[in-house]
Amino acid sequence: MQIHSPITDLRLALKNRGRVVLVPTMGNLHAGHIALMTAARAHGDTVVASIFVNRLQFGPSDDFDLYPRTLNEDCDKLTAAGVDLLFAPSESDLYPEAQQYHVEPPQSQNQLDGEFRPGHFRGVATVVLKLFNIVQPQAALFGKKDYQQLMVLRNMTRQLALPIDIIGGETVRADDGLALSSRNAYLSAAERAEAPRLQRLLQRIGTAIRAGETDFARLEREAANELDQHGWKTDYVAVRRQADLQLPGDDRKQALVVLAASRLGAARLIDNLEIDARDGR
Hints:
By secondary structure, the chain is an alpha/beta fold. About 35% of the residues lie in helices and about 20% in strands. It has ten helices and nine strands. A hairpin with a 2-residue loop joins strand 8 (about 255-265) and strand 9. Helix 6 (about 120-135) crosses helix 7 (about 145-160) and helix 9 runs antiparallel to helix 10.
């Protein structure tokens, strides 16, 4: 696997590489990231991973300085996964001057995760567009665990007419159902044992909706209360339309998703569950 930091070196290495597929990450890779790398191979000739902890998407109270950085271990995992090139820029490579041009997603960015992390999706969209311009891939993969992020980036790509296929990768889970995340490392042993409750509650909501329950507000409230009663600090549990993450409205026969974000100790965990109320899935 080739490793490049300067943009000029990466662009030179990507000449005559056929169809390029990009998998952007912030490093500290786990099996979920590696599943994206493996899936990327089916979508092109050359798989490029990027590792960059993007300051622009972290708020003042977020964990930018504490975010785990494990480049050597990550390189070993990417090599084993068959990744062709790694783009691992420094801040001075990616932001040689203060970034004054930004991508501003629509107002919908300020709901759900955006309500609790102001400016987060602005920072994500800006760095991803910059990565797209540097790598110029024909396809890019992002995990479905970050459901709202996937929608923001898919909409950005469509509305800016970028010639890139955005592909969502299924969430990879531990045996007990916990979605894999770099931030799971912040959990104590007791918190790790408690953490699967989040997915179990989403599954319970899904079962209720498939059985015909339409009082989504009650389902959301009960799930958030149960989390908080077990030591969590819940930001939201929300049932939304998959199409646009807006409230479901009166049409109950539609593709829905239930999303949640809650803090357990030092870790802020997010998860979701897609529900197709049209056919009971």
